């Protein structure tokens, strides 16, 4: 039976980008936006250097949209609770790589815009998505570390919003280390 080896708090930033479906938003273009995430994490040692990482995260997945014709902008903000299920391989106590998926439940979605995009809104937001994540984690001290990651969400998040991608960094503070 695997025992939890770490419990910690996570806070980080992500550069979020995505694509617009040309069929529904042909006159607009998307730009990356900065979002944040925070939560708790734990890992379970499985066998040798293999660990299972999980937790509960509050995640913002924002996107900026601008009108090609007028230059007006709208900010789209989708927020989620994520439960990551990541397989981690530890090279040593202070370095690991990981990959896996998250089960993400939509909490809210909103949009605000100016000018020609003042009526922007998020339509038909998916209640659940499954992002795929690849990353690397490093510890700088026994209780402090960071991880860098790439995340992709295949498919549509809402009507006209699809193929979300993010790169980000998290600061990790381990509250308890059992091994």
Q: In angstroms, what separates the terminal alpha carbons?
A: 15 Å
How many runs of DSSP E, i.e. beta strands?
Answer: 10
Strand content: over 45%
Helix content: under 10%
Largest sheet: 8 strands, antiparallel, barrel
Give the averaged pLDDT, no decimals.
88
CATH architectural group: Beta Barrel
What is the fold-level CATH name, i.e. the topology?
A: Porin
- Read across the widest sheet, the strand sequence of neighbours is 1-3-4-5-6-8-9-10
Question: What's the helix-strand series?
Answer: EEEEEEEEEE
Low-confidence stretches: none
Structural class: mainly beta
Backbone shape: elongated
Query: What is the gyration radius calculated from CA atoms?
Result: 18 Å
Number of domains: 1
Please report the first level of CATH classification, the CATH class: Mainly Beta
Tally of DSSP helical segments: 0
Question: What this model shows, in words?
Answer:
Strand 9 and strand 10 (about 160-175) form a beta hairpin. The chain has about 180 residues and is mainly beta. The protein has a single domain, classed as Porin (Beta Barrel), CATH 2.40.160. It has strands at about 5-20, 30, 35-45, 50-65, 75-90, 95-115, 130, 130-140, 145-160, 160-175. The chain is elongated, with a radius of gyration of 18 Å. The protein starts with a strand and ends with a strand.
């Amino acid at each position: 039976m695997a025992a939890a080896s770490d419990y910690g708090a996570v806070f980080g930033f992500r550069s979020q980008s995505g694509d617009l479906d040309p069929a529904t938003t042909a006159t607009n273009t998307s730009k990356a936006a900065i979002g944040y995430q925070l939560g708790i994490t734990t890992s379970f040692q499985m066998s040798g250097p293999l660990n299972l990482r999980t937790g509960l995260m509050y995640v913002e997945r924002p996107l900026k949209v601008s009108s090609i014709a007028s230059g007006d902008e709208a900010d789209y903000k989708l927020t989620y609770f994520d439960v990551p299920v990541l397989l981690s391989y530890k090279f040593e106590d202070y370095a690991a790589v990981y990959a896996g998926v998250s089960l993400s439940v939509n909490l809210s979605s909103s949009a605000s815009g100016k000018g020609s995009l003042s009526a922007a809104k998020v339509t038909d937001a998916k209640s659940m998505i499954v992002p795929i994540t690849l990353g690397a984690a490093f510890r700088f001290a026994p209780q402090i570390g960071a991880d860098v990651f790439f995340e992709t969400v295949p498919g549509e998040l809402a009507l006209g919003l699809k193929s979300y991608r993010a790169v980000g960094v998290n600061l990790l503070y381990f509250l308890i280390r059992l091994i």
